[in-house]
Amino acid sequence: MGVMPWSAARAAELIEQYRSQAGPCLPILHALQEEFGHVPSEAVPMVAEALNLSRAEVHGVVSFYHEFRRTPPGRHVLKLCRAEACQSVGTDRLAAEVKAHFGIGFHETTADGKLTLEPVFCLGNCACGPAAMLDDRVLGRVDLKKIEQHLARHVAEERKA
């Protein structure tokens, strides 16, 4: 994820790029998040003005859809599946363990900025639950130890780069 620092000029370019589409609000918000890693609060009034919406309407869209972040993510994003198949094989217990171990809840980032925890509803890996996704890699039959191992591997790969 190549996250760029906030730039009002770049946000304006993205808004302009998508504003002529039918139903442009979601594509604009997705583009902003892709560029900046989240939907910056500074962008909300810009989107509202461009689309002739109130700030509250744009904020409502951002807060309604769980995929939109209002704060920058950590260097790594762990998504835990919360769907029924994974719940039946212990994802609730796993979520509690992960939250306690890293000291964060869903939609939160560790104090060191290393990890953001997000819930997701079905990763399409139902036969291998509990399922998780670390960054862009789907993991199956995970437990806390396996998550720690994969996270350590990602951190080690970062250091090599």
TrEMBL record:
Binding site for [2Fe-2S] cluster: 81, 86, 122, 126
SUPFAM superfamilies in the cross-refs: Thioredoxin-like
Cofactor note: Binds 1 [2Fe-2S] cluster.
CDD domains: TRX_Fd_NuoE_FDH_gamma
Record-level Gene Ontology MF annotations: 2 iron, 2 sulfur cluster binding; metal ion binding; oxidoreductase activity
Pfam families hit by this protein: 2Fe-2S_thioredx
Sections of the chain in a coiled coil: none
Cofactor: [2Fe-2S] cluster
Catalyzed reactions: a quinone + NADH + 5 H(+)(in) = a quinol + NAD(+) + 4 H(+)(out)
Keywords: 2Fe-2S, Iron, Iron-sulfur, Metal-binding
Family in the record: Belongs to the complex I 24 kDa subunit family.
Protein name as annotated: Formate dehydrogenase subunit gamma
Annotated source species: Hypericibacter adhaerens
